[in-house]
C-alpha cells in the first residue's frame, strides 16, 4: 500500500510536458464552414491567429498526429469589437448562441459513423470523425468557453443540436481586451485534436479575436 501511494505522489508531482500549437502558420489548421452560414475571416496577423467575425461562424480544426493525454490548456488571446447578447436572453439559447471563443477539445471514444451515416452527415460531423485513427472513434467535442454573462461561469450543458457537443463556461469577458483562458482537467483526457469556434451569426455581432498562444499540458 505504501509503495502504491509513493508511486501516486511521484506521478502527481511529476512535471507535465507542454506542447505549443502553432498560431503563426495556418498550414496545420483546417477551415470548415456550416451550411448557409457566412464563414469567418481567418488570417495570420503579427504572428497571431486572427479570426474576424462579421455576423458569421465557422470552425478551425487542428488534428494531432497521434492522440495526446491532455491534463490542461492555456490560451492567451485578445479581442475587440462587440458581442451583444439580446436583453432577456441567456447566452447559448436560441437567437443568442454566440461566443467570443469556444476552445474545443476533441475527445477519443467509441462512437463511429456507419456507411449510411457517412453519406448523409453534415460536413462538420464528417470532419470530426476523420480525426479519429482507424478502428477507433470519437466521444465528443468538449468546448471550454468564454461568456458575456458572469452568472454562467461554472455552468455546463450538452448542446441541443447534438450530443457530440458539450460546453463548460469557464471565463467571463465583460469587455474587450486581452485575456487568458486556463483549465486543468480533473482527469487526463485522450485528445484527438482541437476545434476552435468564434460565433456572431445568431446575434449579428462583429468582433475580432487574436489568439497569441495555445499551450497544452500533457502526460
Characterization of the model:
The chain has 219 residues and is mainly beta. 12% of the residues lie in helices and 51% in strands. The chain is built from 3 helices and 11 strands. The chain has helices spanning 2-13, 115-120, 123-130, and strands at residues 17-21, 29-31, 41-45, 48-54, 57-82, 102-109, 137-147, 156-158, 165-172, 177-199, 206-218. Strands 1, 2, 3, 4, 5, 6, 7, 8, 9, 10 and 11 form an 11-stranded mixed beta sheet that branches. A hairpin with a 2-residue loop joins strand 3 (41-45) and strand 4. The chain is globular.
Q: Look at the helices and sheets and give the structural class.
A: mainly beta
Please, how many helices?
3
- Compute the CA-based radius of gyration: 18 Å
Element order, helices and strands? Answer: HEEEEEEHHEEEEE
Tell me roughly what share of residues is in helical segments: 10-25%
Largest sheet: 11 strands, mixed
As residue ranges, the low-confidence spans are: 1-11
* Count of DSSP strands: 11
Query: Strand-residue fraction?
Result: over 45%
Distance between the termini: 24 Å
On the 0-100 scale, what is the average pLDDT?
Answer: 90
The dominant shape is globular
